[in-house]
Write a sequence for this structure.
């Protein structure tokens, strides 16, 4: 968990030029795939990259926004989160899984992260 926090902090301090290039599904997939070894607890040499921090920051922001707004949405737009908290690692894994199969990679990264989380926690 500390490693994911470090990755998120690195993302917060990156330059605007890096942020400007971080907009599509292909970039998001590449950046979030780099986070998966941290989620798995693998020992990584060199520490997280700015791109990996951007992934964690974006996914965490989308997840927290969705959780905050969920109770205010009509039922057809809700996400059915489990009673326990969804970890950032689980959300990143959901984003990677979704991006590996979707044809919507030209969509902006935040929307894709939202679609991925909704897909991972559907209402039945």
């Amino acid at each position: 968990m500390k490693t994911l926090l470090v990755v998120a902090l690195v993302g917060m301090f990156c330059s605007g030029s890096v942020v400007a290039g971080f907009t599509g599904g292909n970039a998001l997939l590449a950046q979030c795939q780099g986070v998966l070894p941290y989620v798995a607890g693998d020992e990584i040499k060199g520490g997280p990259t700015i791109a990996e921090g951007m992934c964690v920051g974006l996914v965490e922001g989308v997840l927290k926004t969705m959780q905050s707004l969920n109770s205010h949405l009509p039922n057809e737009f809700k996400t059915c989160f489990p009673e326990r908290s969804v970890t950032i690692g689980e959300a990143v894994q959901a984003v990677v899984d979704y991006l590996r199969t979707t044809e919507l990679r030209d969509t902006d990264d935040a929307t894709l992260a939202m679609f991925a989380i909704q897909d991972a926690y559907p209402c039945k």
Summary: The helical segments are 2-12, 16-20, 25-33, 36-39, 50-69, 88-101, 109-120. The chain has one domain: 2-120. The first helix runs from residue 2 to 12.
